[in-house]
Description:
The chain has 211 residues and is mainly α. Helices cover 45% and strands 3% of the residues. It is built from nine helices and two strands. It has helices at residues 28-46, 63-66, 78-84, 88-93, 107-123, 141-146, 171-175, 178-190, 192-210, and strands at residues 58-60, 70-72. Strands 1-2 form a two-stranded antiparallel ribbon. The longest helix is centred in the first third of the chain and has 19 residues, at 28-46. It is flat. It starts with 27 loop residues before the first helix and ends with a helix.
Amino acid sequence: MAPSRNGMLLNPHFHKDWQKRVRTWFNQPARKLRRRKARQAKARRIAPRPVAGPLRPQVRCPTIRYHTKVRAGRGFTLEELKAAGIYKKTARTIGISVDPRRRNRSTESLQANVQRLKEYRSKLILFPRKASAPKKGDSTEEELKMATQLTGAVMPIKTVHEKEKPRMITEEEKNFKAFASLRMARANARLFGIRAKRAKEAAEQDVEKKK
Length: 211
């Protein structure tokens, strides 16, 4: 509590050498410049590859709270690469990130990422390792002349919200009781095993009575 009225200050600490313990941040403008120069140097070094790095998959955030949000993931699964017809070792060499630990839990995410890979592959301009001896799959000379370094994100993920048109509420929706339906569903799930056991016992007793 703060002292009240004109009382004595309890245990005051006014002789600390606080100037020694102050943390300054005078190097912030120079650090900002250094980071910018480092980004530019890296862009020149990896040119004509994209500045933002490899292509990332489209994933959903975990937990019920955030699973409506779509964001960029770590890497594509081996199943997605196989469906898109891209070899896993080749993928990293052509700017596609790979995550062998990730699993596809739904068909929708698998199809979305396969389509993403196919679209990327169709837009990709692949430079030959040796300009004098281009291999199968490399881009033509006309495409190589058109190539420019991509500065932004590679195929940024866009969330599209489809607005539902206003309509009249139906009688079925008016009579629907959400709370009662939830309680009934929970009760059915909880009592499923007990009911199945009772039904089995009743069936066995009927068989014994018939004997």
